[in-house]
Amino acid sequence: MNYDYIIVGAGIGGLSAGLNLAFNNKKVLILEKNSLPGGVVTTFKRGRFEFDVALYDLLNYGNDKHIGSLKRLFKKFDLQIDTLPINYNIRINSIDEKYDDVIKGEIDDWVLKLEELHSGSMAAFRGMLPILKEIHEGLKALKKGRTDIEKNFPNLIKYLDVSTVDALKDLGIPFDTINILGHCWVDIGSPLNKLNFIDFAEYMYKFIFKRPVALYEKNISLVLKLAKRYQELGGKIYYRACVKEINDVDNKKEIVLTDGTKYYTKEVICNLSERFAYKNLISTSNLNAYQKENARTLSMNGVVVYLGLNKSYQDLKLYNYRYYKFQTLNSKNNIKYMSNLNHHTWQAIVPNIVNNDASPKNTTILILKTLYTKDAWNEVNKFNYYEMKEKIANNLIEEFEETFGIDIKEYIEEMEIATPITFSKYVNSINGSLFGPMRLGYDNSINRLLSYDEEKMPSISFVGGASIFGNGVDNAFYSGYFVTEKLLEEERRDYNG
Amino acid sequence: MDKIDKMKKEREDIIKSYSKKRIDDTYIDKQVSNIFNIYHTIVVDIKEETSDVKTFTLESIKDSSTPHLVPFKAGQYITIYLNINDMLVTRAYSLSSAPSLANKDIYKITIKRVENGLVSNYMLDEIKVGDKIDISRPAGDFGYNPIIDEENVIAVAGGSGITPFMSLAYAILDGIYNCNLTVFYSVRKYEDIIFKKEIEEINKKKKNVKFIITLTREEKDGYLNGHISKEMIEPYIKEFNTVLMCGPKELYRSMNEILNEFNIPRKAVRYENFFVEYMPDNKKNYKLKVVIKDNVIETTCRNDETLLVAMEKAFIKVPTLCRVGECGFCRSILLDGKVKMIGASLKKAETENDYIHPCVSFPDSDVVLRLDI
Q1: What is the nearest CA distance from A370 to chain B, expressed in angstroms?
Q2: CATH code of A264's domain
Q3: What does the DSSP assignment read for A346-370?
Q4: Are B298 and B324 in contact (CB under 8 A)?
């Protein structure tokens, strides 16, 4: 069978690409190896609990007052979802700095908190806000290929090749304040000395100006909606269709499934990391692609412990939406600890704080997550895998109890532990990496964006959380849109010229 | 735009300085991280436990694509894939062997003959040492959880429900878990006792694992008599307990009444889902259409058999694992018709989007199903 486009993987990026292509009346087929769409944006059930795997804070969606670009895209595709506001309420604790504080509420509350921490922070922070806006607008112009960047967005150009730490220093923000502001590096997957300021500014922009929202429904409900809409627009999707090869045959791409079925297309869009695709699927050797992957550093993988507790969060005294625990607030130093399985940096989330219906009445869901870099897994083998997994989970639970003085263990009714093995099995992320290739130095998403046209391989594109814009549902969705817009533009150019 | 060009050039130079070798960087131990859907094994031993129960020892086939088996947790099951009269059928069995044997690429399953049971009869009558059997990876979350479970563990087994507890007993004796296990094992008669010799040996050790056998249809010296009762269990109940149960539904019902008297909280009691039982009032035969990608297969389904069984009889290769509605492997979309689902663990959005689990679905009308395979 011939298709205009074939998409491998029905994750957020694949669904988004499919939606935009089907919306433009293209003949599209999505091939998904699992029996449900979504990739890590999914749920699983244990007893009376239904756990969301990955998506808690939806960024860049916003609300009626502050419409995010994700919401605009959803509107374009006639997609409606119910969201809930997240009243920010996070607790940060760090061992080395003996820091323990709660950051609550809106931006003004944040600013006061930062000022309390270090006098002078407030003015610097306020001074940064228009720059975040300018960078955001400039980036939008850059994505559209506009040529007035240098003239109209001087701060974008100024910080284009500057690390987050250096840029924030340049903006007069004291170092200890930078570390509090930048605690989110564990959600982005890159330490602040390696993360480009444009990438960070875009994250902060979305955070500050388009407040994150939570989904009212479970993760799986969102992706089923996307898949349904894609099918209504004429797109086709096959589940349990596992791709084993992508071949070049007669100027076309031949997609072979594990059962031997073959499909043909002029362009294949992979909702997979480039690393996985070139390593396992693409048969024609591509030295440029191998070089690009060999140059990259894979970002952290992690262990996530999902707990169903048999008491309400009020009874348990779990009053914060998110908890962060660091060995040190300095991300550059902290990431070094992550090469050891027994480090002390982790985070927790209590979805019930923003969504009453996150679990049955008088129960609470608590999710603990910790990250590891490559060397951490050296000592794990088939003889000690379960033991290590249980030990890590137990340490996380006990450290949480100890750090925040909250009893958890005796209330656990259901629990599941997801390891890098779990993630690599379900979504083919290499070594279970949660962020794909690390955004660092030359390979931040701004760099990937600037070199996109030059690096684009013929007849093959990549979308999703491990691609151009990095992890996060908003980035993954936008990658699908961005990449397909490029392809459609190319089509129009070919047609006209 | 000088800066942009400079950044692009820098990026290009960095990439160009790297090797052109093919990427190979799975740094997590491959025997842990390479999980396959199917493992190829060979039957290396068959032990007759009773007149209608056999234990099959399966070892990975060294020169196959899966030379090693993955580790498992005591209490997990595997699914075996068989081709019986050109019909691809599957069944899930709890692993009865020590988890440490998996390190030597060995799993054991223990199978009891079921009256008219297609698979159990085939396994007991046809399978010989040297036969090859394809199996799934270990799955399921039944078993002991050292993080949340109590140190005093009461296990309750009925008939062939003893199998996961044999594995758990070995796990404890091997020092994997630090807890006290008392297994109450209820069988009809002395001759029905599975693992008799192994149980005697374990009891002789007088360590932290103890089996207490009760015969329900026979009196015999050295054995308790009758169904498991409050009085039998009482001496073994401590302040905090974890109760694990595996057996027929009647056992769970009577045990729950007993456990209520001991005030054991809900979260401390766990069951293994074993059987799917449904007896419709009137037996009927319905039409079943299965849409697979762009094809339609037409067959029939009795209202006392599951849609999964009907599809297997029609030679459709349905993906399955647990066969009790939990794992979602056979998940399909009900395009038309009505079904009765017994104990399916459905996500909220699955219910809202007409998903069903055919392994526990009985037809209540003619049915049209979509199953992508």
Answers
A1: 17
A2: 3.50.50.60
A3: EEEE-GGGT-GGGSSTT-EEEEEEE
A4: no
| Chain B neighbors of A217, CB-CB under 8 A | 348-349
- Alpha carbon of B3 to those of A21, B81, B323: distances in Å? 34, 61, 61
Most distant CA atoms of chain B, gap in Å: 94
How many C-beta neighbours within 10 Å does residue A452 have? 15
Complete DSSP assignment for B8-56: HHHHHHHHHTS--SPP----S-HHHH---S-EEEEEEEEEEEETTEEEE
Specify if A484 maps to a domain.
yes
- The verdict on a CB contact (< 8 Å) between A310 and B266 is yes
Span B30-135 CATH architecture:
Beta Barrel (2.40)
| pLDDT tens-digit readout, B208-251 | 999 999 999 999 998 999 999 999 999 999 999 999 999 988 89
The tens digit of pLDDT for each residue in A445-479 reads 999 999 999 999 999 999 999 999 999 999 999 99
CB-nearest to B27 from A160, A290, A377 is A377
Cβ pair A310:B267 closer than 8 A: yes
Bridge partners (DSSP) of residue A491 are: none
Taking a contact as any Cβ pair under 8 Å apart, which residues of chain A between 36 and 95 contact chain B? 36, 43-46, 50
CB pairs under 8 A between A and B: 167
CA B150 to chain centre: 23
In a domain, A87, yes or no: no
**DSSP H stretches of helix in chain B:** 2-16, 30-33, 118-126, 163-173, 196-205, 230-233, 249-261, 307-313, 348-352
Q: Find the angle CA(A188)-CA(A218)-CA(A416) to the nearest 5 degrees.
A: 70
CA distance A419 to A432: 8
Contacts of B16 in chain A (CB under 8 A): 291
Q: Which candidate in A155, A161, A294 is best for mutational testing of the B interface (most B CBs within 10 A)?
A: A294
pTM equals 0.96
- Got the DSSP string for B308-360? HHHHHHTT-----S-SSSSS-TT-EEEEES-EEESS----HHHHHTTEE-GGG
> In CATH, which superfamily holds the domain spanning B285-370?
Beta-grasp domain (3.10.20.30)
- Chain centroid offset of residue B202 CA: 24
Among A291, A407, A431, most B C-beta atoms within 10 A, so best to mutate, is: A291
Residue B192 has pLDDT above 70, yes or no: yes
Sheet holding B77-84, edge to edge: B87-94, B77-84, B132-135, B39-50, B53-60, B106-112
CB–CB contact A430 B348 (8 Å): no
Domain span at A282: 2-42+216-286+457-496
Quote the radius of gyration of chain B (alpha carbons, Å). 24
Tell whether A362 is within 8 A of chain B (Cβ): no
Chain B residues closer than 8 Å to A381 by CB: 29, 31-32
User: How many domains is chain A partitioned into structurally?
Assistant: 1
What is residue A440's DSSP assignment?
Answer: -
Q: How far is B9 from chain A (nearest CA, A)?
A: 9
Residue A178 lies in a domain: no
Query: What one-character DSSP code corresponds to residue B151?
Result: S
Above 80 in pLDDT, residue B32?
no
Do B30-135 and B152-271 come out as alike in CATH topology?
Answer: no
Distance from CA of A104 to the nearest CA of B (A): 32
Chain B contact for A262 (CB, 8 A cutoff) = no
pLDDT, tens digit, 9 for 90 and up, residues A275-285: 999 999 999 99
Q: Does A292 touch chain B (CB under 8 A)?
A: yes
Q: CA–CA separation, B96 vs B49, rounded Å?
A: 12
Q: What CATH code is assigned to B152-271?
A: 3.40.50.80
ipTM for the complex shown: 0.94
Sign of CA dihedral A376, A13, A63, A42: negative
Q: Select from B35, B141, B331 the Cβ nearest to the Cβ of A35.
A: B331
